[in-house]
Design a protein that fits this description.
The complex is a heterodimer of chains A (347) and B (326). With 347 residues, chain A is mostly helical. Helices cover 59% and strands 0% of the residues of chain A. Chain A is globular, with a radius of gyration of 24 Å. Chain B starts with a helix and ends with a helix. The chains are: A mainly alpha (347), B mainly alpha (326).
Chain lengths: 347, 326
């Protein structure tokens, strides 16, 4: 598993034998329907909808001063649901417009970083010898170089006066976010390439791209999905941090930009909570939604992680204890009485 | 031992890459940013200083990139990172060494607390899984998903602006205490460090909790844990058998986490006006102080590499298998 070039000898058992089943079974990717996943999915759908329709329904132009008479931020009112900033911009409009940019950047970063990590990680795992050593070295260096200073430098390449493109920002963030996924994918590819079904495909004389594309990649789907979600979380946080530091043009609205302006006017100390709480809370909730989905994928990869095997009602019906003693972890739930649950732990 | 030597070799290589990257940072900036920055400074600095800066960045001189690179190494090996243009006439080295102890103290302490607390909670959550403790995971995840600086602002607002329990800015109160090895100063420093440290612990603990729990749940199904319980060993012993084995991946995960924690801690410092590296970094960015920016990049990278090296040593100490293989 670890060829000495990996960061450590032992691997987080995120990568267990369970994921390495042949393509046929993984195609039906069934994410466990636990409350965590459902809540996470619901929240994510809400935020994506917000990102799509937000700028269309925003009542005002986020940069426009709606009144010049009052220099202090106004608390929420019927006219401005989330109040105003010190130059009377509508915070709700800024939130709605900024949501799209925040999510575009995050998903762009997630997509590009995941693509990079699949290309680099799977190649490193599949080829061996010098190429693997070099690619692993690249991955490990990417892991240990701290991202924030690099990002600060790279945002220097963004145009300062005009509106930077969201896709470009996402690309820059992706450059610092691919290494984690690449490392996990490399390890899993290493373990897959010596399985019988891959060996037999090779003996039949399948081409290399076909083996990678049709034999190995399907077994990597849960890990790719998990690394995608992880990178999107990273993208949301990083973009917000960069904007908060004032490295992104201040009229390019995102949740981080709102926080930047609020902080520069010491909104927190002055009690203008309507100005800085909504953007921070939105970032936190979006990240939580993605992390909850990631729990679901973890539980799919390693069924033992499902916290409780049985609901109270099921436990009563089947006569099984709700929490099992050591040594037995119920990974399947009894769905109906026709399928005796008592046989579950043994199956 | 072989493993450790290989790791040290890798870190030296990573350091070389970082130093080279550092060399290219100002040279890759678009629109001749360095020349523009130097032009701005021309009126404030002595001609000798300008000359030194021009040499450092190869502006106006006709040196090849390679001889600039050699010059850069020569300066660096002599501990000379140039003059900070925003703290003129202080050198980059002196500015950074003034801020470094604060950051090392804050981040080091907070990371150790967060690691221990997170690991312990992870063990507990795994052991008592299926109980109300499971709800700890989503709650801590929320804290982790919130940006560090947002969490910092919330804590400042609640505990210092509203309740007045803790100070909101600075590392110690300059009007009350003088730096030195006396209890008044040390307690004042700890008092000021409490909120920033709490921010870092709250924001980073979730990673350790989830990591530890996930491995622990798997380890608890191992036969030796079952045997330990069947023998009737006290629960505490059984837990420790499982936990000792489950902790190894957490130590490996350290290298993944430390980069995030350091980045987050830098942002936390900015909110608290804590006089560490993060605060210096922000000033360097705002003032377009390239020598300082380069110095900060290098020092952060070296700190992260050192932390990783320590984690590797700890791993070898904890896991006898790594010692035998060599």
């Amino acid at each position: 598993m670890a060829l000495g070039t990996g960061v450590g000898a032992a691997e987080v058992p995120l990568v267990t034998e369970d994921t390495a089943v042949p393509a046929r079974r993984v195609r039906r990717l069934r994410i466990p329907r636990s409350p965590k996943v459902l809540i996470g999915l619901g929240m994510l759908v809400f935020f994506v909808l917000l990102g799509v329709i937000g700028p269309l329904v925003a009542p005002h132009d986020p940069s426009a001063s709606l009144s010049t008479t009052n220099g202090t931020p106004q608390p929420p009112s019927a006219a401005h649901w989330l109040g105003t900033t010190q130059i009377q911009q509508d915070v709700l409009s800024q939130m709605l417009v900024g949501g799209r940019s925040t999510m575009l950047v995050a998903f762009m970063a997630g997509l590009v970083a995941t693509a990079l990590s699949v290309i680099i990680g799977v190649s490193a795992g599949y080829v061996s010898g010098l190429a693997d050593d070099l690619l692993s070295m690249l991955i490990n260096i990417g892991l240990v170089l701290p991202a924030l200073p690099l990002l600060i430098v790279m945002t220097g390449f963004l145009p300062k006066d005009s509106n930077p493109s969201d896709l470009l920002i996402g690309l820059i963030i992706a450059v610092t976010g691919w290494a984690w996924g690449a490392r996990v994918l490399r390890v899993q590819t290493l373990s897959l390439r010596n399985r019988d079904f891959v060996q037999s495909a090779r003996i039949i004389g399948e081409r290399r791209w076909r083996i990678i594309g049709f034999e190995i990649l399907p077994g990597l789907v849960p890990i790719i999905a998990s690394s995608f979600l992880f990178t999107v979380i990273y993208g949301v946080g990083t973009y917000t941090a960069l904007a908060f530091l004032g490295l992104i043009n201040g009229t390019h609205w995102s949740w981080g930009t709102i926080l930047f302006w609020a902080q520069s006017q010491t909104a927190a100390q002055n009690g203008y909570w309507w100005w800085w709480v909504p953007p921070g809370l939105a970032v936190a909730l979006l990240g939580t939604a993605l992390a909850l989905l990631n729990f679901g994928i973890d539980e799919f990869i390693n069924p033992r992680l499902r916290s409780a095997g049985l609901s109270r009602r099921q436990a009563k019906k089947t006569g099984l204890p709700r929490r099992f003693p050591l040594g037995v972890t119920p990974v399947a739930r009894p769905r109906d009485s026709a399928f005796p649950a008592a046989e579950e732990p043994g199956s | 031992m072989i493993l450790l030597l290989r790791r040290i070799g890798f870190y030296i290589l990573a350091a070389l890459v970082a130093i080279t990257l550092d060399f290219f940072i100002p040279r890759l900036m678009p629109g001749n940013a360095v020349a523009a920055a130097l032009a701005n400074l021309r009126s404030q600095f002595t001609p000798a200083t300008i000359k030194a800066l021009e040499l450092q960045y190869g502006v106006g001189t006709n040196q090849s990139l390679w001889s600039q690179y050699v010059h850069y190494w020569d300066k660096l090996l002599h501990g000379d990172m140039g003059i900070s243009t925003s703290h003129y006439p202080a050198t980059v080295t002196s500015v950074i060494s003034a801020g470094l102890p604060w950051t090392l103290g804050l981040v080091g302490l907070a990371t150790v607390i967060s690691f221990m607390l997170g690991t312990l909670l992870g063990i507990l959550v795994a052991w008592r899984r299926g109980t109300a403790l499971d709800n700890l995971l989503p709650v801590m995840t929320f804290f982790q998903a919130a940006p560090y600086f947002f969490l910092a602002i919330v804590l400042v607002t609640v505990f210092s602006t509203k309740l007045g329990w803790f100070p909101a800015i600075n590392a110690y109160d300059q009007t009350l205490v003088t730096p030195g090895w006396n209890w008044a100063y040390i307690s004042n420093v700890l008092y000021h460090a409490f909120l920033p440290a709490l921010t870092i612990v709250l924001a980073s603990a979730a990673g350790w909790i989830v990591g530890m729990r996930n491995v622990m749940v798997t380890t608890m199904d191992e036969d030796y844990v079952l045997v330990a319980q069947a023998k009737g060993l006290p629960k505490r012993r059984v837990i420790s058998y499982a936990a000792r084995n489950a902790i190894l991946p957490s130590v490996t995960g350290f290298s993944l986490a430390i980069g995030f924690v350091v980045s987050g801690a830098l942002l936390t410092e900015i909110v608290f006006s804590y006089p560490g590296i993060g605060y210096i970094l922000q000033q360097a960015v705002l003032e377009r102080d390239y020598p300082l920016l380069q110095g900060v990049f290098l020092i952060i990278t070296f700190a992260v590499l050192t932390a990783n090296l320590i984690a590797d040593f700890a791993y070898v100490l904890l896991d006898p298998r790594t010692r035998q293989e060599g």
